[in-house]
Amino acid sequence: MIKRGLPPILDENTEIMILGSLPSDESIRKQQYYGNPGNDFWRLVGNAIGESLHGMAYEKRLETLKCNRIGLWDVFKAGNRAGSQDSKIGDEEINDFSGLKEVVPKLRLICFNGRKAGEYETLLRGMGYETKVLPSSSGANRRFSKNRESEWEAVFRH
């Protein structure tokens, strides 16, 4: 089944962009990045920036990210995937990143949320951006929670 991603959450002040792979089925249904409550994204980013994002309404979360100069997008514009696991993504269509420098001129760091998104790190590094592959915020990745939290926090204290 073909799944389509969400529009980017970026503006001219964005300095750090977090790229996921492709939204989960629940995120697509809600039309919200990291809309699955089983994903730890909002807790990890909130801890890293000193804000309690987890309990906020979605629009307030996005506003808080923008105030912290953080943007969101995904590596894939679309892909064929049964369910929500990154490992099941096939026939992926990559988003067009060629216009980033015009849309987000202050962008300095691109973080990849997990290994699947991180497979495209060299593409964006080749465009002149500093990059970092972070451990996945997926709830399935909680067994590494201490290291995961410290890696996410280090990026935003950069």
TrEMBL record:
InterPro entries: Hypoxan-DNA_Glyclase, Uracil-DNA_glycosylase-like, Uracil-DNA_glycosylase-like_sf. Residues 7-156 form the Uracil-DNA glycosylase-like domain. SMART domains: UDG, UreE_C. This is G:T/U mismatch-specific uracil/thymine DNA-glycosylase. It comes from Methanosarcina siciliae HI350. The lineage of its organism: Archaea, Methanobacteriati, Methanobacteriota, Stenosarchaea group, Methanomicrobia.
